[in-house]
Write a structure and sequence with these properties.
Two copies of one chain form a homodimer.
Chain A (H helix, E strand, L loop, with lengths): L2 H17 L2 H9 L5 E2 H6 L5 H13 L3 E6 L2 E6 L3 H4 L1 H18 L1
Antiparallel strand pairs in A: 1-3, 2-3
Helix pairs in contact in A: 2-4
Chain A binds a DNA duplex through helix 4.
Chain lengths: ~100, ~100
DNA sequence: ATGACATTTGGTAAAATGACCAAATGATAG
DNA sequence: CTATCATTTGGTCATTTTACCAAATGTCAT
């Protein structure tokens, strides 16, 4: 494989990996209808603030979200909202799996 | 968050995580135009057969691919091809990132 | 049966990830 | 300027992931 191709694959995998954690995926979904501050996101997550901050940082690194500080708060938003449009396909994978499991019984 | 919601998020994250490794993403892309046997996939990957086999097993667990043994060979195929349609969006994320990096210079 | 071939499984070691705590930063209010 | 609030950073530890090697499995031809 060419170096450039390889780099592209790695970059894509990196984005998918960033979304491949329940907390981070949940956060991304929360941003579907607009920005939220860290404190809002934190409300529904049972984890240390530092943990939440680090997850957001992973999403930012991957280019999934952008952050903006306003006053004391930091707001995050989706940079490329199409990533959520994909979820119906992911759900199809899961449904498929579930049906096959059910067929075994 | 409700238990069911939580389980769904976890399932979705799991699929994304499975695709979130360069080798596995590459494999999935190779299957775009139909099934391939492990040996074909292995040709372009510089890794032990056992490593390749384990990656395929992760994709299978996640419900991304299905396998079928025919003769000595095992063939893998995509179960839900829409996952590849997503890649254009992922690429948009990367392009976005790249442009921002470029703007810094 | 025996050997050769394609793939998987089990074991192990190195590296990456994720969670928490404590401390640092930056912004605002008093 | 000091205290306070929101968030990030650094450190540490447990867990998970990944890669390789060696050995096992299942299939086919002889």
């Amino acid at each position: 494989m060419k170096d450039k191709q390889k780099a592209l694959i790695e970059a894509k995998a990196n984005v998918l990996k960033a979304l491949g954690h329940p907390t981070r995926l949940w956060m991304a979904e929360q941003l579907e209808h607009g920005e939220k501050c860290v404190c809002e996101l934190a409300e529904s997550i049972d984890a240390d603030f530092s943990t939440i901050s680090k997850h957001l940082s992973v999403l930012k690194q991957a280019g999934v979200v952008a952050d903006e500080k306003r006053g004391k708060q930091v707001f995050y938003k989706l940079k490329v909202p199409c990533i959520l449009k994909y979820m119906s396909c992911i759900e199809a994978v899961i449904k498929n799996q579930a049906e096959e499991q059910a067929d075994l019984l």
